[in-house]
TrEMBL record:
Pfam families: ELMO_ARM (PF11841), ELMO_CED12 (PF04727), PH_12 (PF16457)
Keyword annotations: Apoptosis, Phagocytosis, SH3-binding
Protein name, as recorded: ELMO3 protein
Organism: Baryphthengus martii (Rufous motmot)
Biological role stated in the UniProt entry: Involved in cytoskeletal rearrangements required for phagocytosis of apoptotic cells and cell motility. Acts in association with DOCK1 and CRK. Was initially proposed to be required in complex with DOCK1 to activate Rac Rho small GTPases. May enhance the guanine nucleotide exchange factor (GEF) activity of DOCK1.
Biological process per Gene Ontology, one example term: apoptotic process
Domain ELMO: start-end pairs: 267-440
Record GO terms (molecular function): SH3 domain binding
Length: 679
């Protein structure tokens, strides 16, 4: 256009994130993209750099506001940082004359500039950090400034041990708990984010101390009452933080779980003896101390055998296997001390039974502890995206031990219902595992509710469920039924394809996960109703379902080349230099489009969404649906359709081969001859 001083101008996307067009991203311009002619990034950076130093408050505020919005663009951010712009931001914060709108824009700009990873967090000055900390610790500060300050500290904590120690020392747990108890949901969320960041960055000993302190302050009851059962629905991010808090709490058991019993430890031997004494010494008329050593030893061995130990002469041997290690002993002692009546009843009831039908308390406890550790993922690292926490976990102190107390009584109950002998031990524990997992899947809100439901799901109910599943399998394996299945498949697969495309038309909210797991950036993607274009764009938290017109970016389905999943995706390869995250790998997929082979990268919020989206995109590409969800949906639909078709054959066994066609009858002369009547 022959503009004078052309280098002073640049093009910028007019819609969505207003990114500058550079050589590296010019290929992202699509037909129909609206561009704006504007000052070049270096000119804009220069102007704003002077603007934020202005003595005029209005000019300074406007410059900071513009800076906060432009800093999202990497080209501008680089130009601004090259001019030593961050130093200017530091000085505004360090002076801290203003705590209103100006400071909020300054902190927002700082966050956006740091997000590009041009500058290390470790370069921050002590004065700057203390100022940010003071905004968190002061009461009379604007909520938006406190939120941004908490976010700054949350991003700072994982970057270095030094910063972690500084933040932990300056921002007390008491202060964070105060922020958690406010009515402002966003402030509450940011306080929880910082608390979780501190817990994850702490060493094992520090984490244990912090969790003990939080337990003293009744954080569990507060979360149960005011967050889980609040009138507002629980957001995805808060659900994730509660999952992490639950995971961190349960992982405090890991040390005991992985430690074998030391037969020479006085403390551990006393715990073991307390189990025997609680069960038998109260009923013994003569105190054991009056017997000779030999007699006492044989009496103890007999009592340990009654308690169900495999090695009754040296019961410590039973705790050598780790996991569950000493955690099993802790659970048994907790059960004997906190529910002494149930403990005595369990032991005495089984020690007085005839040998072959007694339920071994010790052996069952050790195996049950291992099962609970597996079900609750004790000792496994936290997932970066999971949100599956148990509401009842926050409704109970000593959750793991209390759950054990309910489940060990369930073992005894199921043992009696199955009329089990020692040979059936593994079968009984398998049934108990099924009872626990099926009940946990119902997400009971309290342990009492869990207890009620797990006891209702007795052995006969489990048998019925298994039988129904088996019958359903058997009846669908008859040859004629298999033929009918094959005939119904194409029609039902088409139904699944339509459902997947409808789901894509409805759209889904995705999160952008950066290297520091800052999860507050959201974007939405949906398919146009005519299935021709994928629309997507950034959105704010709390927007239920943005209209298609508000999503600025588009990819025509005709330009889509292929679908990549898991390790093949470019955004998982980028992260592979650090610790590769299993969950992100399981939920990641990318669409390759255009002749230049660009990628639109997704991380699905759940496995369910991952399956629906990958299936839907495969349908658009004209390929087979490959997810595990497609198979389960097809099985459900086939089973329903078959049941409807076979309703008339209820209680009639279907033969494997068709019945033979009967021979024609001997007297076939019953046909009326019309030809005679016509004559």
């Amino acid at each position: 256009w022959s503009l004078p001083n052309a280098e002073r101008y640049a093009l910028q996307f007019a819609d969505g994130p207003q990114t500058y067009i550079t050589e590296s991203n010019r290929s992202e311009i699509k037909n129909g993209s609206i561009l704006r002619l504007t000052a070049s990034p270096d000119q804009e950076a220069e102007r704003l750099y002077s603007g934020i130093q202005s003595n005029n408050v209005d000019v300074k505020t406007d410059s900071l506001k513009k800076l906060a919005s432009l800093s999202q663009d990497v080209t501008f951010a680089q130009e601004f940082i090259n001019r030593n712009g961050l130093k200017q931001i530091f000085s505004i914060v360090e002076e801290g004359k203003d705590t209103g709108e100006m400071m909020a824009h300054t902190l927002k700009a700082f966050m956006e500039l740091m997000e590009h990873d041009f500058v290390s967090w470790e370069t921050l000055s002590a004065t700057f950090i203390k100022k940010i900390v003071s905004y968190v610790n002061m009461n009379a500060v604007d909520a938006s400034i406190q939120q941004l300050s908490l976010s700054v500290l949350e991003n700072m904590v994982p970057t270095s041990r030094l910063l972690f120690e500084l933040v932990k020392k300056e921002v007390t747990l008491d202060r964070l708990l105060t922020h958690l108890q406010v009515t402002n949901a966003q402030l509450q969320l940011k306080a929880m984010a910082l608390l979780i960041a501190l817990l994850l960055a702490a060493s094992d000993a520090e984490r244990r101390d912090m969790m003990d302190y939080l337990r003293e302050k009744n954080i569990r009851q507060f979360i149960h009452k005011n967050i889980i059962h609040s009138s507002e629905p629980l957001g995805d991010e808060m659900a994730h933080y509660l999952y992490v808090l639950q995971s961190v709490s349960l992982n405090l058991c890991e040390h005991r779980m992985r430690t074998s019993m030391d037969p020479y430890s006085q403390e551990q031997r006393e715990l073991l003896q307390s189990l025997r004494q609680a069960a038998f010494e109260s009923e013994s008329e003569v105190p054991a101390s009056t017997f000779s050593t030999e007699r006492r030893r044989s009496l103890c061995a007999k009592e340990f055998r009654k308690l169900g130990f495999m090695n009754n002469s040296n019961p410590a041997e039973d705790f050598r296997r780790a996991p569950p290690g000493l955690l099993a002993l802790d659970n048994m002692v907790y059960f004997s001390r906190h529910t002494p009546n149930a403990y005595s009843r369990f032991v005495l009831e089984n020690s007085s039974r005839e040998d072959k039908h007694e339920c071994p308390f010790a052996r069952s406890s050790i195996q049950l502890t291992l099962i609970l550790c597996e079900i609750l993922h004790v000792g496994e690292p936290c997932s970066e995206t999971a949100q599956a926490f148990y509401p009842m976990f926050f409704g109970q102190d000593h959750f793991f031990e209390e759950l054990f107390c309910i489940c060990i009584q369930l073992v005894n109950k199921t043992w009696k219902e199955m009329r089990a002998t020692q040979e059936d031990f593994d079968k009984v524990l398998q049934v108990v595992r099924e009872q626990i997992t099926r009940t946990l899947a119902l997400k009971p809100t309290s342990l009492d509710l869990f207890k009620t439901r797990v006891n209702v799901l007795n052995y006969s109910e489990i048998l019925k469920l298994r039988q129904t599943e088996r019958l359903h399998q058997e009846e669908t394996l008859a040859v004629p039924v298999l033929e009918l299945r094959e005939r119904l498949k194409p029609e039902l697969l088409e139904l699944i394809r339509q459902q997947r495309l409808l789901h894509l038309c409805g759209g889904t909210l995705f999160r952008k996960i950066s290297t520091r797991r800052r999860q507050d950036k959201l974007w939405y993607c949906r398919l146009s109703p005519n299935h021709k274009v994928l629309h997507y764009g950034d959105v704010e938290e709390g927007v239920p379902s943005p209209p298609i017109e508000s999503l600025p970016e588009k990819i025509p389905v005709a330009d889509m080349k292929m679908l990549l999943v898991g390790k093949e995706c470019p955004h998982t390869k980028e992260k592979s230099s650090g610790k590769q995250n299993k969950d992100v790998l399981e939920l990641a997929f990318s669409v390759v489009y255009d002749t230049e082979e660009y990628c639109l990268n997704f991380v699905a919020p759940t496995r369910y969404e991952f399956c629906l989206w990958t299936d839907g995109l495969n349908v658009l590409l004209g390929k087979e649906m490959t997810s595990e969800r497609k198979q389960t949906d097809l099985d459900v639909l086939l089973s329903m359709e078959l049941k409807l078709r076979l309703l008339d054959l209820e209680n009639i066994s279907i033969p494997d081969t068709p019945p033979p066609v009967p021979k024609p009858p001997s007297n076939l002369n019953f046909c009326y001859d019309f030809s005679h009547s016509e004559q």
